[in-house]
Amino acid sequence: MRKSLRRRLSAGAAALAMSGGAVAGVAAAPAASADTLPSFSFAACPKLPAGADPVFWQCNVAVTYGGTFQLGKLNQTISSPITLTYANGFNPDTGEEGWLFGGFSASKMLVQKGIFGDPFVTAIYAQPQYAGGFGLADSKVQLNLKVQVQNPLLGGNCYIGSNSNPIKLNLQIPATTPPPPNKPIEGSPPVVVQEDPPVLGATLVDNSFAVPGAKGCGAGLGVTDALVNLYAGLPSAAGHNTAIFKQYVSFKTYDQLG
Fold first, then answer.
1. How do strand 27-28 and strand 188-195 relate by DSSP bridges?
2. Which residues pair with residue 145 across a beta bridge?
3. Would you indicate the residue range of the signal peptide (predicted)?
4. Is the pTM of this model over 0.90?
5. Which of 250, 248, 249, 246 is nearest to 69 (CA)?
6. Closest by alpha carbon to 12, among 93, 90, 126, 118?
7. Which of 8, 55, 99, 135 is the most exposed place for a label (fewest CB within 10 A)?
């Protein structure tokens, strides 16, 4: 019985890992070669609540390895991994489902070789950071982010978004319904790229979110906020921004974590 339940969780919740429950099945695809896949660490798996049965809970590690993250006039190619770790499961007696946030990590990515296009000035980098909000609902992965803009002239506290005013992503696989001028886009459903250990590949998208203006730029005093916002086209209303996250996901039930 436990084996069949584990298969149910691994198949059904694997789709949940990619789409918040939007996909009922997982298609098969040719296995990817090992050197094309990222490494998956389960060190950030969250602790289960008291009384939760580890057989019915699964930890998921989703690594975004490509795609784009357009914020206003900034159209950033995702050039380094973004890793999200979380758990989902259910109560076998009541059928009630739940989820837990585990961790988020991302390296900085090059935005501009020279500030505002000037090749003689130090490069600008952007680093996505978790902004205190995660959930699985309405067939979407809900994720709140902020982006630190890094450059010596901007100081260490220059951010697009914040914990109190984040970039609110609702990532999904089905076609979006954004406000104009954006047009509907859709992701790609999970496919099996490796069976042992299990790895799925999919693309999640959102082009309906708004982006707040940058704050805290210029030695932390905000004196260059206006310049950053002019350059980046911020704040940017919904319908002018796009997230396309190409992901690999690996997963284990909690009784497999050891």
1. parallel
2. 130, 167
3. 1-24
4. no
5. 246
6. 90
7. 8
Q: What is the pLDDT along the chain (258 residues), one digit of tens a residue?
A: 444 444 444 444 444 444 443 333 445 444 444 458 999 999 999 999 999 999 999 999 999 999 999 999 999 999 999 999 999 999 998 888 999 999 999 999 988 776 455 544 568 889 999 999 999 988 899 999 999 998 888 888 999 999 999 999 999 999 999 999 999 999 999 999 999 999 999 999 999 999 999 999 987 667 789 989 998 999 999 999 999 999 999 999 999 997
Per the structure, how many domains does the chain have? Answer: 1
Range of 71's domain? Answer: 2-257
Q: Which residue has the tokens 């019985």?
A: 1
In degrees and rounded to multiples of 5, residue 157 shows phi and psi of: -130, 35
Give bridge partners of residue 3 from the DSSP assignment: none
Per-residue H/E/C for the chain: CHHHHHHHHHHHHHHHHHHCCCCCCCEECCCCCHHHCCCCCCCCCCCCCCCCCHHHEEEEEEEEEEEEEEECCEEEECCCCEEEEEEEEECCCCCCEEEEEEEEEECCEEEECCHHHCCCCCCEEEEEEEEEEEEEECCEEEEEEEEEEEEHHHECCCEECCCCCCEEEEEECCCCCCCCCCCCCCCEEEEEEEECCEEEEEEEEECCCCECCEECCCCCCCCCHHHHHHHHCCCECCCCCEEEEEEEEEEEEHHHHC
Distance CA 205, CA 170 (A): 8
Burial of 143: CB neighbours in 10 Å, binned 0-12, 13-18, 19+: buried
